[in-house]
Write a structure and sequence with these properties.
One of its GO terms (biological process) is thiamine diphosphate biosynthetic process. Keywords: ATP-binding, Coiled coil, Kinase, Membrane, Nucleotide-binding, Transferase, Transmembrane, Transmembrane helix. It comes from Thermohalobacter berrensis. The chain has 16 helices and 15 strands. By secondary structure, the chain is α/β, with parallel strands linked by helices. The protein folds into three domains: 117 residues, Glucose Oxidase, domain 1; 176 residues; 39 residues. It has an eight-stranded mixed beta sheet. Helix 1 links the parallel strand 1 and strand 2. It is globular and about 90 Å long. It starts with a strand and ends with a helix.
């Protein structure tokens, strides 16, 4: 196997995909490649992916590598020092499991094939019970510390956007978020809910032609374009008040309010909508199960568990809604549509003077034939 392409690298895959061009070679430091990262690399149409971390560690059955191989994108693993050796935006050549750049040998790589992925996924499945035990313990431990989320002890910031008695759509860049957004497009157009993008969820709304009313998050994965277009920005801060995302807001010359709270940005978005008396909260792409959280690198879901207990009466989770119903074009519908289209044509034709004369002539001939 020989592959030649321009090298693009970043320690964060979500940042790298914004700079990738088709046929580039993506170089990442991503332990346990998750589905979201895999889909973004696939959409970038990269020629191959070189990972300087374990693509599947066996900790849990992450599906990212399987998706890359299924899409025909070779997945290679290289030593950790390769990441620093390779130069950005310079062509590299991969030949016989060896990597060269500007005729210099940079190191060897291992091809991760279907057999290897299958073996590691089996290991991940075996290890899942241990991970589940740790996940539950961590969730319960932190739930005790973060119970203020549901007891009203977290101060909700004042916002300009009116949410009372309105539907609120909260979009997170989670699994299948694009297809789910497309599936509820008619709902968005008809109901006109308040649109909240959680970090990159703001860009997801822009991709569908909608401008977010609010962007919430630590702002590490949302574009400048989205921040400049959105009507209101809420920066997720640590419980002690530190908000690194504010530095970016200041550089852009924008205004924002901070929301100091434990948990995830999607959690505080749900709290925000609930606190300001939204009549219905619709969530797209949110993280709601153990695999989702393990893929995010979180050891538990205490805040999410607590927040969903609080807002559950108003929450509709649209995750996977694109799988709910798939319409199929049936022959009887085509026949019915064709018949419906013919009816007005027949009526108009019968009312036309030449057609009336033809019918009268036919009636006269018929009468002559039967001797009337």
């Amino acid at each position: 196997m020989e592959i030649v392409g321009v090298a693009k690298k970043d320690k964060k895959t979500k940042n790298l995909v914004n700079r990738l061009n088709p046929k580039d070679i993506a170089i990442i430091k991503h332990k346990d490649i998750d589905e979201i990262a895999a889909h973004s690399l696939i959409e970038s149409k990269v020629q191959c992916v070189i990972n300087t971390e374990k693509s599947i560690s066996g900790k849990y059955p992450n599906r990212g590598p399987s998706l890359l191989l299924k899409s025909g994108i070779p997945l290679l693993e290289a030593p950790k020092d390769f990441f620093e050796k390779v130069k950005e935006n310079k062509p590299i050549t991969i030949k016989h499991n060896k990597i060269y750049q500007e005729r210099l040998f940079l190191g060897k790589c291992e091809i991760i094939n279907d057999k290897k992925v299958k073996e590691l996924l089996e290991l991940g499945n075996k290890n899942l019970e241990n991970e589940l035990d740790k996940f539950i313990e961590n969730t319960l431990e932190y739930a005790k510390k973060e119970k203020g989320l549901v007891l009203g002890k977290v101060k909700i910031p004042r916002i300009k956007t009116k949410l009372a008695k309105k539907h609120v759509l909260i979009v997170v860049r989670g699994k299948d978020y694009k297809r789910d957004l497309e599936a509820i497009k008619s709902y968005i157009d008809e109901v006109n809910p308040v649109l909240i993008g959680v970090d990159g969820g703001g860009d997801a709304l822009l991709e569908q032609g909608y401008i977010p009313d609010i962007v919430v998050g630590d702002l590490d994965s949302v574009s400048d374009k989205c921040l400049l277009l959105t009507k209101e920005i809420i920066v997720h801060a640590y419980p002690d008040g530190r908000a690194p995302g504010l530095n970016r807001i200041k550089k852009l010359g924008l205004n924002a309010v901070t929301f100091p709270a434990p948990g995830t940005s999607e959690d505080i978005s749900l709290l925000l909508a609930y606190n300001y008396d939204a009549s219905l909260i619709v969530a797209v792409g949110t993280h709601s199960n153990m695999i989702d959280f393990l893929e995010k690198g979180r050891k538990g879901m205490a805040s999410t568990f607590l927040v969903r207990l609080k807002v559950g009466s108003k929450l509709v989770d649209a995750k996977g809604v694109n799988q709910l119903y798939k319409s199929k074009l049936k022959l009887k519908y085509i026949f019915g549509l064709g018949l419906a289209a013919l009816i007005p044509i027949i009526i108009i034709s019968l009312m036309a003077p030449p057609m009336r004369e033809l019918i009268q002539l036919f009636q006269i001939k018929l009468k002559l034939l039967i001797g009337m």
